[in-house]
Amino acid sequence: MQCDQIINVKNIDTTTPTAPSREAIAALVKADRVHTSLYTSDELFQLELERIFTKTWVWVAHVSEIPESGSFKTTEIGTQPVIVVRDRKGAIHTLLNRCRHRAATVCEHRSGKTNSFVCPYHGWGYALDGSLRGVPHPESYADRLEKNELGLVSLRTEQYAGMVFATFNEQIEPLEDFLGAAKKWMDLFMKQGAGYPIKTGPAHRFRFPGNWKIQLENTTDGYHFPVVHRSFLSSVDKQTEEMLNFVDGSGYVEDLGNGHSVMVMIPELVDLEANLDAPIPERFIGLADELRKDHDEAQVRRIVRAVGGSGFNLNLFPNIACSMAFFRVLQPISVMETEIHHAVITMDGGPEIANQARLRLHEHFQGPMGFGTPDDSEAWERVQRGATAGDDLWIMLNRGLAGEYRTDDGLRSDVSAETGMRAAYQQWKKLMTESEK
Questions:
Q1: SS3 state at 156
Q2: CA 379, CA 80: separation in Å to the nearest integer?
Q3: Coarse DSSP helix, strand, coil percentages of the chain, rounded to the nearest 5 percent
Q4: Distance CA 392, CA 7 (A)
Q5: N or C end: fewer C-beta atoms under 10 angstroms in the chain?
Q6: Are the C-beta atoms of residues 83 and 73 closer than 8 Å to each other?
Q7: Cis, bond preceding 267 (omega within 30 deg of 0)
Q8: What is the pLDDT of residues 241-299, one digit of tens each?
Q9: What is the mean pLDDT of residues 323-335?
């Protein structure tokens, strides 16, 4: 059967509950391209929620967001609401935000601290670990209320380098195995604390009218930077502009396995604690002078280096990016709408002047009035709008393919290559076509 007979989304009968075959889905992803229906098919989107977001590890929190017993945050895995909470013994739980009685959410706050969760509908009360603790007027249930079986549904939860992940899939490999070669890069990214613990600030949240995978591609796309972000480059000093002119530089993109990838834009800033005797950039000289009032020279250089952020973007499939100096979380809303969370990274207990400098840098590019996010958002929206043109067209992902070579960690190509996107879509294909176990 010819591909155009399989992949044309108009050939899929959306009036019946029959999903496209796994063979038909596999035909949508080639080694060098993917079919446009991955952006536009609601049927594929519904299958993604089932076969990707409930079957793999999904990032839900950083430990700094839930620092104490009773600390919690609410978020989503796919489109399912969950609570991430630290119990009285310090253990972290990911609980479905749904009362076991009549399905009302038991928490509507984005974050906070509590002793328990109580359903506002009928008053069922749950402990921090999700166990059912109290039911008003239990006598009406006689002996038919099994409290030990009616706690909030708890998902398997594991963490690495302060990053908390959860999964519906009890059979999945341990988180560290899933992360694989990405762990090295997570460790490097956390050096932004400059010896202090990493702390995330409140997230800047916004939505764009486009598919979640369009944004997934963006964090590993160096090719667009000098085109889309020309206004940003014109707003920085000459030294910074030259540093960010990385498309023709010695950076690279590497496929780390399981859909993860890293884009190294500024190789000399991969390890923030290396070569600290290098000259301090002009834009940070004033900050360094202020820090010298209370810190020795070694610590000054360590802090200043951390403020500028890492020289790489790390994509962790399917929903989190560690990008220079912030976390970018993507939240699928519908096939043509995605919510993005940008959370700046600061030094918990670090010098206030350094954290303020980090915030100003974040606002300059990622903030709602910054240069980077609005330009990126327009590009993503244009991709989604253009994806509706034509019945049977492909998204090209072949840049850098000819120059790929294998390293100890995975496949590598130049910094403007689409290697990271190809990695993500091969993982998408694997999860979307795996047989049920």
A1: strand
A2: 28
A3: 35, 25, 40
A4: 8
A5: C
A6: yes
A7: no
A8: 777 777 888 999 999 999 999 999 999 999 999 999 999 999 999 999 999 999 999 99
A9: 95
Does position 92 have pLDDT exceeding 80, yes or no? yes
> 178 by DSSP, 3-state: which?
helix
The predicted model scores a pTM of 0.93
Phi/psi for 300 (5° steps) reads -55, -50
pLDDT tens-digit series, residues 206-234? 999 999 999 999 999 988 877 777 777 67
- Determine how many CB atoms are found less than 10 A away from the CB of residue 116: 12
Instruction: Look up residue 187 and give its two tokens.
Output: 């460790």
Helix (H, G, I), strand (E, B) or coil at 130: coil
Residues 383, 387, 388, CA angle at the centre, nearest 5°?
Answer: 130
Token couple for 358: 């980090």
**What's the number of CA atoms in the CB half-sphere (13 Å) around residue 437?**
7
Quick one: pLDDT at residue 12?
Answer: 44
Nearest Cα neighbor of 261 from 172, 169, 323, 332 is 323
Which helix (DSSP H) or strand (DSSP E) does residue 72 occupy? strand 71-77
